[in-house]
Fold this sequence. Notes:
mainly alpha; two-stranded antiparallel ribbon
Amino acid sequence: MVRMMGKDLIKVSLFKYLPWNEKKVLTRIREEVGWESPPDSSTTWRFDCTVDEVKNYMYLKLLGVTEKDDFYSRLIRAGLMSREDALMRVKLENEVNIESMKALLGEVGISFEQLDLAIDRYLEVHPR
């Protein structure tokens, strides 16, 4: 558990106590709630947030990995996913939708080229 700074809130990491079983979770929400993933999404994870696309793009350019790489790596070590399945999913799910990124960046007055330039300048000073 993590105590939030300056607040009487406690964050509980559910999956430190319950094993992650993606098939079971997806089956349950589809059958009990009627949930469907968007047809244009390659993943059921964080598909609802365009900001996530920008974050993943920056992670990939700066670090060469995303949170998904870390998550699947943990599942492999816990024996909940094979390395082959993880590699297949990372290859598919780490594809960034550049057009949706450009649209979001445009809404806040930043061009895709400006973002790329800022990342490149950072990498010049702080190479991987």
